[in-house]
Amino acid sequence: MPKRVGYLYDKMVDRDFIRAVIQEAAKGRRSRKDIAPVLADLDGYVEKTYELVASESFVPSEPKIREIYDESSEKHRKIKMVPFWPDGVIQWMLVTAMKPVLMRGMHPWSCASIPGRGGKRIHKKIRGALRNDPKGTKYAAELDVAQYYPSISGKRLIWALARKIKDKRFLRTVYSIIESCGGGLAIGYYICQWLANFYLEPLDRYIMTLPGVKYMTRYMDNITLLGPNKKQLHKARKLVAAFMQQRLGLSMKANWQIYPTAKRMVSAVGYRFSRTHVILRKRNFLRFTRQCRRVKKRLDAGKPIMFAQASGLLSRAGQLKHCNSHTIRVKYIDPIGVKHLKEVVRNESKRRQRAQQRFLAGGAA
């Protein structure tokens, strides 16, 4: 076992560290109602945070719960939200302090909610494996963890963290946040996405020791396995389910699938992969075409494109760069024009930036 790390809490009791974390946490959302006042009085909030951390008096706030419909997974999710200060700042400080420790043992193909490790990374891995190793990728398995965030045991998680970190003050603060989630981990907490990824680290290492598993990727709790033998993948699937249950207290979803990649495309991170090409998943494509039609309808009626529509469509158009999509671009994107969409976003961004500058300067927005 690697040497455990200590003195992480001491890193947090530093005004320069606190200032840097607040500025980093506020990037891209500086005009938010609960963030703008903190930035307007940065020195004062740095001092308040310092006193809070130095006296070990931080108590997690009661989260506000908001239910949303997640279109990508077609599920209703309960999002828990806490104020930017002190909760958000403390969570960012904890993650910043322990990030090197978490990254040290992380599997290279464990992705999601980690800078530089998004869906694009898994996209390249699966596409490359299918194209370059036909014999080693004859079969694919798609596995998922049932109710992952709510099912995580706080005590198991903190014990797993204690095997890497020996700072008791630091662990106490992390555990107080885990306890405030009200069972499992909270969707919406910055620290929880890091802890959720860390909790499956033993599973990642175990999967790669199983015979018949040549390639493995994990996007949070969605696991994709590739191998040359169907029977071995079935055995691996059973062993993975047993490991989840016995070691992690989790259960595998019943909708697992194992199939030949020659007859069916591998589905992951919003795309479908074959040996020769990559396409969008059907429901992602349908959402994209509907959004294009709505924007085109406004243009034809002589109405301006709304900022939300332009930014959303640009985001979906960006997905087309990573798949075979020439015909789709010609049919749906070219009649609208990417330059037009970018102009809408650029003008609105400038307007918001000017309003924020007036607010911070004490003027009326």
Automatic annotation (TrEMBL):
Q: What is the name of this protein?
A: RNA-directed DNA polymerase
Family matches, as CDD domains: RT_Bac_retron_I
Sorted alphabetically, the keyword list is: Nucleotidyltransferase, RNA-directed DNA polymerase, Transferase
Segments forming domain Reverse transcriptase: 1-273
Q: Where in the sequence is the signal peptide annotated?
A: none
A GO term for molecular function: RNA-directed DNA polymerase activity
Q: Does the keyword Electron transport apply?
A: no
Top-rank taxon of the source lineage equals: Bacteria
